[in-house]
């Protein structure tokens, strides 16, 4: 029964990562195509996702939502600043300076960084297999999204993408250490609400004042990234961290670029090379190595 519960717990971060892979493809179209800027997309996305998360929290844990502790409110606000405002603005801003593939690759560094931090803090027990698996998965990510000739790279873009990865590492660790045992739907509601509020000043300061090119397709994609990768994806991630820990959840992060690469091949006609296929195999092998139970 315990093994079955652990297996179910592993599904949560895995499904969250896959949903974020679809978000990357939608983001490439929306932001890369000039239909909407990254800060505005972040604000609109979570302004729409927050009521959905709140409805779920009210339905599942009404009493806990209406009687939220101050400690939960404080740490949820920190999570909102890091995982909603910080991560998304860093990530989308990096896309303005580097190719999406390189940005996603740098962001995938959250996998070994989370594992190393969890071991240093005594949250996880270090094993040779798990350590190798974390780095193998990132190596596979490099093969899937390795820079092509002519791709653009900049120091500022790298720093922004690394800022996104670092924000996500701290987000995951705080969630594990400070908010373990709380109802995750309630945590996610206050996190999303706080992140939306923190994004407003960034929107005022950074968002361009030009008109947006949002038609029916773009509007549908924005609703999708709000409901699935936004509301559902973040809630599944929180549940996964609570059930299986920070490092085991973080190892699924490389599924984000893997999913994006596969969807790009299927939907956008992008080429899936032999090197990328080998990278996909390494990503899967790395995930198995980290979550493997002796």
From TrEMBL:
Keywords per UniProt: Membrane, Transmembrane, Transmembrane helix
Coiled-coil regions listed: none
Claim: Membrane is one of the keywords in the record: yes
One GO CC annotation: membrane
Membrane topology summary: Multi-pass membrane protein
Keyword Transmembrane among UniProt keywords: yes
Transmembrane regions listed in the UniProt entry: 40-60, 72-94, 100-121, 128-145, 151-174, 186-207, 219-237, 249-268, 274-292
Domain EamA positions: 9-145, 156-291
SUPFAM superfamilies with a match to the protein in the record: Multidrug resistance efflux transporter EmrE
Subcellular compartments: Membrane
Cited PANTHER family: EAMA DOMAIN-CONTAINING PROTEIN, INNER MEMBRANE TRANSPORTER
Protein name: Drug/metabolite transporter superfamily permease
Organism this protein belongs to: Aeropyrum pernix
